[in-house]
Specification:
Oligomer: heterodimer
Shape of chain B: globular
Helix content of chain A: under 10%
Number of strands of chain B: 11
Helix content of chain B: under 10%
Distance between the termini of chain B: 32 Å
Strand content of chain B: over 45%
Largest sheet of chain A: 7 strands, mixed
Strand content of chain A: over 45%
Shape of chain A: globular
Number of helices of chain B: 0
Largest interface: A-B, 26 and 24 residues
Order of helices and strands of chain A: EEEEEEEEEEE
Order of helices and strands of chain B: EEEEEEEEEEE
Distance between the termini of chain A: 33 Å
Number of helices of chain A: 0
Number of strands of chain A: 11
């Protein structure tokens, strides 16, 4: 499978714990995005990377959230001191920087986080 | 997603055409997208249209864009049970602005 992959698919944690999610983009894609989707809503943008540089962060990304893409390939999203309001599906997407298909964002299956 | 609006539900008889509508507010939007989401799954890119186009057709899918009214629609011809899903429209606002802003989604139900 050469699509976007995410790990884990499901995470249940207790309030106050830290969690980390991983995203592996499509291999030739330079751009990587994180979105959050709550029940009954469309995805909301969190942040995006071009190679290893984090170029934009949403105001939704509080200081408890941090994202990294250290080598310009996979990315991690960490949430510290989780709260019940963090329960959501966290979606990763990737796209090319240029050339054919540069305007297409392809999504992974998501990581569903439940905070008890 | 509050700037991109969609009806929440649509029911269509199998074999009929489905038309899913979307309105957006930012006239500087460059690309408009349609994604499909099945239960428990991520989003599947169906099609997208550049803002200087009026129409795009791809097999059973037809996208119509009315830029003056900021209205986008997705027509699915010969709707099948496998088309049951939530459909999201999304806009990308301006070159160099890479994030997508999504609507709340339209749940399409197929009546046998």
């Amino acid at each position: 499978d050469t699509g976007v992959s995410q790990d884990p698919r499901h995470k249940i944690t207790k309030r106050g714990q830290n969690v980390t999610f991983r995203c592996d983009p499509i291999s030739e894609h330079n751009r990587l995005y994180w979105y959050r989707q709550t029940l009954g809503q469309g995805p909301e943008f969190l942040t995006y990377f071009q190679n290893e540089a984090q170029l934009e962060k949403s105001r939704l990304l509080s200081d408890r959230f941090s994202a990294e893409r250290p080598k310009g390939s996979f990315s991690t999203l960490e949430i510290q001191r989780t709260e019940q309001g963090d329960s959501a599906m966290y979606l990763c997407a990737s796209s090319r920087l240029g050339g054919q298909g540069r305007d297409e964002q392809f999504f992974g299956p998501g990581t569903r986080l439940t905070v008890l | 997603g509050e700037d991109v609006e969609q009806s929440l539900f649509l029911s269509v008889r199998e074999g009929d055409s489905s038309v899913i509508n979307c309105t957006y507010t930012d006239s500087s939007s460059t690309y408009l997208y349609w994604y499909k989401q099945e239960p428990g799954a991520g989003l599947q890119l169906l099609t997208y249209i550049f803002s200087n186009m009026d129409m795009k057709q791809d097999q059973r899918l037809t996208v119509l864009l009315n830029k003056k009214d900021k209205h986008l629609s997705l027509r699915i011809a010969d709707t099948q049970t496998g088309d049951s899903a939530i459909y999201f429209c999304a806009e990308r606002r301006g070159f160099g602005n890479e994030k997508l802003t999504f609507g709340t989604g339209t749940r399409l139900t197929i009546i046998p």
